[in-house]
Amino acid sequence: MISAGTRNHFALDLGLDRENPAACLDALTDGVEQRIDLGIIGDRTFVNNASFGAYAEVVRSPAYRDDKRGTTLQILPDLLTGHTGPTLAVRAGAVTVTGPQAVLVSNNAYEMSVIAGLGHRARLDAEMLGVVVVTVNSAMRAVGLLGGGGVMVLTADEAVVDADVPEIPVGIDGETVMVPTPVRCAIRPRTLRVRVPRDRPGVRPPKPRIDWAALRALASLRSAPTGAEPKEMPV
Predict the structure, then answer these.
(1) What is the C-alpha to C-alpha distance for residues 12 and 110, in angstroms, rounded to an integer?
(2) d(Cα 118, Cα 76) in Å, to the nearest integer?
């Protein structure tokens, strides 16, 4: 595999050098084969994730490809609280959730320091989908969820997302398409064969922690009634 994509999230999870795609050519002379899982959504496949609701709207943003992390943190809280799209329902294994504003189904589970797939996946061969379900009712709650608190995080070999409309937009590996409901996502264990260099830089260290206190303060100002004086935040 050559790490020559836009943001190379899949390459990152494989431990490839995203800054030097030419280094991937070492796989031809000193490479190893990895057997990894593949996500299935309807009659399509995905290697990263499928996003629904507010998540799908984030993917549609022109800025998303250049700055996945920044774009998500900037617009997701407003999308969660102002989401006016179809009413969703998701079933993952034995768990069913009705009315979430956002659902993310990934090929293996992301690290959950954040909720938008902004971290990385420690494994790509665990034979399970990662499922993140978000339900909020205020901007303050939305930012709180961005820090990881209160988010429903599941794993399952199948996830079904339904809606009160015949088709919904779904972000499949960064491309938004209309998909008939109900939408069935499944995992195909170790189906994809990938040849990678024996020596790889590995997964990068986690990015610096986000100042959640500052984001919550911003959310409280967003949700304050018009004309109301903002309360002083404790120092």
Answers:
(1) 12
(2) 13
Q: Which of 117, 189, 105 is nearest to 148 (CA)?
A: 117
What residue type is 157 in one-letter code? D
* Cβ-proximal residues to 50 (8 Å cutoff; 6+ apart), any chain: 39, 41, 104, 105, 106, 170, 171, 172, 173, 183, 185
| Domains of the chain by start residue, with CATH | 37-189+213-223 (2.60.200.40)
Identify residue 220 by its one-letter amino acid code: S
Q: How far is CA 188 from the centre of its chain?
A: 19
| pLDDT tens-place string over residues 98-150 | 988 889 999 999 876 555 445 678 889 999 999 988 887 654 454 455 444 44
Q: CA dihedral defined by 110, 79, 141, 145, rounded to 10 degrees? A: 10
pTM for this one?
A: 0.71
Which tens digit of pLDDT belongs to each residue from 55-106? 777 666 655 556 666 656 665 666 666 666 789 999 999 999 998 888 999 9
Residue burial 69-98, b: 16+ Cβ < 10 Å; e: rest: bebbbebbbebbbebebbebbbbbeeeebe
Residue type, 57: E
CB 30 within 8 Å of CB 174? no
Strands (DSSP E) found in 82-174: 88-92, 95-98, 102-107, 129-134, 152-156, 158-163, 167-172
